[in-house]
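name: query_chain
kind: protein
chains: 1
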Amino acid sequence: MKDVRPIEMNDGKTVYVKEPSQPGLETKLTALFERLPELCYTMVSGNAPGERIGIIKRGESGYYLTDFDSKTTSKEIVEECVAEFNKRLGVKPSQVEAMEIGSMFGWDVPGADPDKFKNLDEMEKT
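structure:
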């Protein structure tokens, strides 16, 4: 794609993003991506049982379905599994929320910033 270019991250990974349409956007995205994990798990609540656990990758649109769900697993169990998967990866609830928004609406929207959701991290501690 001609409008996409790589941004090298401090952790040695490469993220591919659309060419910035605004001055300073590349710097903003680089700083944002440094505060987000490489990936997180998400519950795709609109999907049918068996297709509800997805993986979101930093800087990418959409999600990737996993085969970790089954048609007989309850919604509550799926939610617990997703939370546990993210916890084991060291991913905070604020980061999951930001990743979900970024993957759906673009990584340059305010909701893709995990700092906007720090209250979710505090709620988890209680």
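note: The mean pLDDT is 88.
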